[in-house]
Amino acid sequence: MEENKGVVEKRARIVTDAAPIAERADASRKPDGKRPTEVDADRFDRQKRVEKWDQATINKQNVLVIGAGALGNEVCKLLFQLGVGKVRIVDFDTVIEANLNRCVFFSPQDAENNTLKADVIARKALADYPHTAVTADARKVEDLEEDVFCQSTAVFGCLDNLGARLHVNAQAYGHAPVFDGGTTGFYGKLQVVSAPSACLECAMSERDYQLLWKRYSCVGEMIDLIDPKAPALATTTSVVAALQVNEFLKAAFGHETLAGKYVYYDGLTHTTETFDVPMRKKCPVHA
Length: 287
Ligand SMILES: [Zn+2]
Hints:
8 strands; 37% helix; single chain; globular; alpha/beta
């Protein structure tokens, strides 16, 4: 029988048969033969079995999620499931019906009532995720105090505009790592910034700056020229949010991260390309 060596090797790494797990559970039976109920009663038991895992490290995290749209929803879902201790969600927008194809926490009632996105997520967390204390912050990211960034252990960029991304990048640099995600249809991106790595602004091209300036009127008010109805898929959102939170986990447990790199995800070929972002000598954020 012909075998693909690569498939055989990788299959050996991934447990797709429940039997070995059942055996492990049997092996942990108490001396009196009773099955230890604590194992199944512990919400985090299965993730605690991951190599180098330390639940206390996750519980100590104080995380800032900027943007409560599609990516923000997915990122929050993962942070709550992991048992992150504190999450602050920053978004001044309200729920609309067109959010419901890709935002796990929003319901038709939320859209009908135009409820604040951050409030909805905080309410759902309170009901289902008692290990996470959630603060809903209905402000523009530009209105956040510097302290908010200084006190955070990680910042998630879940935004749809460059100006806000750059603000988050500049405020967080040197204080907390930034895991910045973005999607368009089947395509997505992840950029990880952790001082002294290159930052989001290091990756800016002349064209990006021109686009950015076009977004501001002569009185400095933001004009939204980016189409808010850009193509958005729940599948791509899930993948990119998972990449963002996975990098956060790696950082928390001391694994080498993708700091200073830009990852491009192509959902049509299921490939990622990872690029080094060169440090810009005159970057206004850290030069
Ligand atoms: Zn930079």
